[in-house]
Amino acid sequence: MTMNEGIQPKSQNLGTQMLENRANNAYVLNTLEQLGRLPQDFDGNWLLEFLNNESSTIRFLAVKNLGKLKNDAFLVCLTQVAKNDPDTNVRREAVSAIGRMRKPDTKKILFAKLKDSDPKVVCQAIRGLLVFKGETEVDKKLSSLIEHPNEMVVQVIRKEYFSEKNNVTKQPHTESYDYLKNVVVNGDTIETMKLLQDESIHLTFTSPPYYNARDYSIYPSYKAYLEFLRDVFSEVYRITKEGRFLLLNTSPVIVPRVSRSHSSKRYPIPFDIHHYLMEIGWEFIDDIVWEKPEASVKNRIGGFQQHRKPLGYKPNPVTEYVMVYRKATEKLLDWNIHQYDKNIINDSKVGDNFESTNIWKIDPCFNKVHSAVFPAELCKRVIEYYSYKGDLIFEPFGGSGTVAKSTKSLGRYFFLTEKDEKYFSYIKEKITTDLDDKFPPRFLSVDEFKGEIK
């Protein structure tokens, strides 16, 4: 007998065995866990004995197996469990079992559970009531939950009752405009993005300028810096296709002290920019930590190594964050994937040597032209893991052009903006044209780019 087949003896014999061994929790637990699909004539009355067991796991499994029977004879007992059990997981499973009955008599019970203190219980009640969607009373009670304090509940209700029908876009989800493919624009990124149509790009990977820590990124205040990034990623959100990704490489930065009588200031950029991104509508997905060799970073621990005095400890910062966000959508991730044909999906599959943890150990790069360069390996992983071949990859701060070069080598298209003429010229030198390029790289001013837009 396999685990999938489960224990399938006669319910009467099984019930007798279980009741005889009710004091043996290990036996009871093991048996309840292995119960598979239950036949329609299965007598589940003996399961009621375990609804008051001291073990919440046993109570949970007893309720779960009662739910398989979808028998309204157990409705009263399950209602009491849903109302009174001290364990929220047991209550949630009882509500699920009630909902699975799909009987009109369950509506009143499920209405009451919409007020449960556990949002997951509320969501189970909603799930049970959606069977009756279209009935006036049900629709009224469920739609009113749009004001619920929990975001999970609101997300479900918005999708079911307040979803806006997206207008048909000018291009399929997998495609991008030809005038954007393999283009670098020498101009302000916000000004340039405003020229783009909604949902034009598939993936953005960028490392924004550091706050006042480099000569190319001077802002009047930290607040002004964060608001600038907010404006940038608001536009990125607009031009990103539904359900696609933004990966943002940032780290805390130190602004040096004015003199020995003053302190330096450390700004937590990744943490401060996060709430702006959430307000825009980006959904947080993952935090990836880029770990660099200690020998490659500036030494901050030297003074402490000498004096060892508490309060003076300053560790060497060997990590940066690559924060992963997804453009909000009511569609599951599979929807994005299924937009591509099988050949593209198969051709884009990631090789065997993929990174399985969120700690990526990658050596940094150094460049005489640009002081903050993406390592090619970092770009390669991001592009392979978060896009398909033929996708359009955007970098709003073109910098040294590593994103463009990596994108091109991986069978995707790039679109970059870079305001600094020195870096723009460097990218132009770095990105070469191949004989088989369907879209040879083009390097345009903003005015020239305007002329390219169709």
Written overview of the protein:
The strands form two sheets. The protein has a nine-stranded mixed β-sheet. The protein is of the alpha/beta class and 454 residues long. Strand 9, helix 17 (402-409) and strand 10 form a beta-alpha-beta unit. The protein folds into two domains: 11-161, Leucine-rich Repeat Variant, CATH 1.25.10.10; 178-452, 3-Layer(aba) Sandwich (Rossmann fold). The chain is elongated, with a radius of gyration of 29 Å. Helix 5 (88-100) runs parallel beside helix 7 (119-129), helix 11 (222-239) packs across helix 12 (269-280) and helix 16 crosses helix 17. It contains 19 helices and eleven strands. The protein has helices at 11-20, 25-34, 56-69, 75-84, 88-100, 107-113, 119-129, 136-143, 151-161, 189-193, 222-239, 269-280, 302-307, 333-338, 342-347, 376-386, 402-409, 421-430, 446-452, and strands at residues 183-186, 201-206, 240-250, 253-255, 265-267, 282-291, 319-327, 359-361, 392-395, 413-417, 442-445.
Features:
19 helices, 11 strands, alpha/beta, 2 domains, 9-stranded mixed beta sheet, 454 residues, disordered N terminus, two-stranded antiparallel ribbon, Rossmann fold, Leucine-rich Repeat Variant
SSE blueprint and pairings:
Blueprint: H1 11-20, H2 25-34, H3 56-69, H4 75-84, H5 88-100, H6 107-113, H7 119-129, H8 136-143, H9 151-161, E1 183-186, H10 189-193, E2 201-206, H11 222-239, E3 240-250, E4 253-255, E5 265-267, H12 269-280, E6 282-291, H13 302-307, E7 319-327, H14 333-338, H15 342-347, E8 359-361, H16 376-386, E9 392-395, H17 402-409, E10 413-417, H18 421-430, E11 442-445, H19 446-452
Parallel strand pairs: 1-10, 1-11, 2-3, 2-9, 6-8, 9-10
Antiparallel strand pairs: 3-7, 4-5, 6-7
